[in-house]
Amino acid sequence: MFRVISLNANGIRAAARKGFFEWMDKQSPDIVCIQETKAQIYQLTDSCFTPAGYYCFYEDAIKKGYSGVAIYSRQEPDNVIRGFGEQEFDDEGRYLEIRLGKLRWYQYICRPDLTVKNGKRRSSASSMYSRRTYRSYKSENQNTYYVETGILLTRKSI
C-alpha cells in the first residue's frame, strides 16, 4: 500500500516540538506533503527536519515566517520543480512538485482569501491575486488532471 500524509503544519518548527516527526515515523508514509512550514531552510538545521530514509525538499517564502511548503519522499524523484515560473507567486514559497515516474506530487498552498461568500466572489486585491495565481498555474498545466489528494496525473499517465 502506498501511504501519503498531507498536513498543514502551521509552522514546522512548532510541529516538531509537538511531536510531529515521532508521529510521522510511526505512520511510515511513502510521501509527506507539508503546507505552511513558516521557516527558511537555514532555520531547519536539526536532523529531525531531514528524516532518515526520506528525500526532503523545502520551498521557502522570501518573507520570514510566512507560508512555505515541503515534500518528503521515500523514493528519489526523477525531477523537482520549485515554483511555476511567475516571480510574483513564487516569492511566496507556495508551490513545490516532485515527479516519480508518471506521477507528479505537488504542494500548493491556496490562498484562503479566494473564497465564496454569500454566493459571490470577493473582489479584494488579495482575491484578485489568488485568481491570477490560479490562471497562471492552469495555463502551465493544461494537459494535467487535478486529483484532490495532491497527485497530478498527466494525460500520458492514464
Which secondary structure elements does this structure contain, and how are they paired or packed?
Blueprint: E1 4-8, H1 12-17, H2 20-27, E2 31-35, E3 55-59, E4 69-73, E5 79-82, H3 87-90, E6 95-100, E7 103-108, E8 116-117, E9 120-121, H4 125-140, E10 144-147, E11 151-154
Parallel strand pairs: 1-2
Antiparallel strand pairs: 2-4, 3-4, 5-6, 6-7, 7-11, 8-9, 10-11
Termini Cα gap: 19 Å
Most strands sheet = 5 strands, antiparallel
The count of strands amounts to 11
Q: Strands across the major sheet, in which order? A: 5-6-7-11-10
- Architecture, according to CATH? 4-Layer Sandwich
**What fold name goes in the CATH topology slot?**
Deoxyribonuclease I, Chain A
Brief descriptors of the model:
about 160 residues, alpha+beta, Deoxyribonuclease I, Chain A, 5-stranded antiparallel β-sheet, 4-stranded mixed β-sheet, 4 helices, 11 strands, about 20% helix
Protein model, in words:
The chain has 158 residues and is an alpha+beta fold. The chain has a single domain, classed as Endonuclease/exonuclease/phosphatase (Deoxyribonuclease I, Chain A, 4-Layer Sandwich), CATH 3.60.10.10. 22% of the residues lie in helices and 30% in strands. It has a five-stranded antiparallel β-sheet with strand order 5-6-7-11-10, with no helix packed on it. Strands 1-2-4-3 form a four-stranded mixed β-sheet, with no helix packed on it. Strands 8-9 form a two-stranded antiparallel sheet. Strand 10 and strand 11 form a beta hairpin. The protein is globular. The two termini are 19 Å apart. The model is unreliable at 110-123, 125-129 and 142-158 (pLDDT under 50).
